Amino acid sequence: METALFSLSSLFAGSDGNSTDEEIIDAPQNFVERRHQFPGMELLIREFDFHELNANLLWPGTFAFAEWLVEHRSWLEGRRILELGSGTGALAIFLQKSFKFDITTSDYDDADIEENIAHNCQANGISPALPHIRHTWGDAFPIPGPHWDLIIASDILLYVKQYPNLIKTLSFLLRAYTPKVSQADSRDFEQQDLSTLPQPAFLMSWRRRIGKEDESLFFDGCEKAGLKVNHLGSRVYCIKPKETGDE
DSSP states of 192-232 as a string? Predict the structure, then answer.
């Protein structure tokens, strides 16, 4: 796997490769470029060497979830997809390049993350870059009537203290869902497989190992917030708003 390490400070360096006093930035951000194998393609992904918000690299769950989504492609047909915790944007880029899905990336309200996702889109032939939402879990969502009927994420349960904020964001996105209506949307709706995957729904893959108690904190928190959790197998979970009669 080829890698290349570089710094944002190099973008501001003089012709001799050295930065002048005026060109030095306070905290140069280092990156590593890696080639990653996804089902049927290779992606060149620039990753943060370090990022304080842990959006710096691809986790194992991303690749496992990509394979699962390929196997269940029909469930995603015609959906408007929002990815939470996009990090480098690799999964969204893969899905758009493979299937031309309507997908929006999202992560912390952080300019570096947004810029890096845009860079990775361009590096992998997606121009303009995928739409991106800067949103910190638990804060007011920047779009009052979210129109995504499928939310996806992989390996986002690392920080237990963030569970209440994540659940708050999920609850809003699932309950405030407002479908867009147009002739094209009607055709998309006809393609959707609602027999297995409800509308709206949250699909989450979790491969990183955490304690059962921590795992239960998230799923129990979802249930208390009026969300129903179903394990679909292969550590993929579907979460949706509870309906009358749901236990």
Answer: --TTTS-SSEEEEE--S---HHHHHHHHHHHHHTTEEEEEE
Alpha-helix runs per DSSP H in 124-199:
163-175, 183-191
Half-sphere exposure (Cβ direction) of 6: Cα atoms closer than 13 Å: 12
Q: What whole-number distance in Å separates Cα of residue 203 and Cα of residue 217?
A: 18
- Classify 44 as helix, strand or coil: strand
H-state helical runs in the chain = 60-71, 90-99, 111-123, 163-175, 183-191, 212-224
Reported as a single tens digit per residue, the pLDDT across 5-46 is 444 333 333 333 333 333 333 445 688 899 999 999 999 999
In this structure, what token pair is assigned to residue 134? 């800067």
Backbone angles phi and psi of 128, in degrees to 5 = -65, 170
Q: Which residues pair with 207 in a beta bridge?
A: none
Q: Which residue has the tokens 């009052």?
A: 144
Tokens 């299937």 correspond to: 99
pLDDT tens per residue across span 105-149: 999 999 999 999 999 999 999 999 999 999 999 999 999 999 999
